[in-house]
Design a protein that fits this description.
The structure is a single chain. About 35% of the residues lie in helices and about 25% in strands. The protein contains 9 helices and 11 strands. The strands form 2 sheets. The chain has a 6-stranded mixed β-sheet, with helices on both faces.
Amino acid sequence: MALTSSKLDEFFRGILDIDGFKETDNSLNGLQVDNDGSEIKKIAFAVDAALEVFKQAASAGAGMLFVHHGLFWGPAERIDGSRRERIKFLLDNSLALYAVHLPLDQHPVLGNNAVLAELLGIENPEPFGLYHGRKVGYKGNLKKALTLDEAVKKISFMNRPPLGVFPFGKSESQSCAVISGGAAQEAFQALEEKVDLYVTGESSHTVYHHALEGRMNIIAGGHYSTEVWGVRRMMDECAKKLEIDTVFLDVPTGL
């Protein structure tokens, strides 16, 4: 069976709750830019929809690029400047763009947060982190108590250093909550639920003293580095289920 963009859209929607997040996620989840209708024989996977990523995907011979952060967020925007350049490149190279934001964060097996929970050894993870009525992260007790150094090593992609480590609590954490990416403010929910360690991508000045006084450890692992996991897990799922060529494009921001 020839894999077209519409067939791949069906496949992704059969796995990820794209329609369920329609009211809570202001990104345009799903197919954002179509190709010319030709068969897709290779899918590239990356975190961000950026021109450098597009160029690498085209050079790799991909017919579709699957990303976590797409081109369109919220109200319609003008197609000018760098946005026009990006879209023109996609069209000129017949490269379809597929983006999945919160549905990929939340997925209980393939999502960013599920993989982070798995890497950290969270037992029987429970949904955590209310965001516009949906919980997108996970929390639970750790199979083995972890020092902050041990936790950092478990979640560091390519051994890259985290943005920040805040040792405000126990020397060994026995419980943990995770939300990838830009979820610094959700640390307040972690404090309310009295976990020992909160893991996210970014830190925030407004959270600092609350976490210090609440004696909760925080790891800000980096927005990019905490969100490679779901993209890579989705890539493995496609390679296994669709028997299609795949490639992961690592274009880190260091943030």
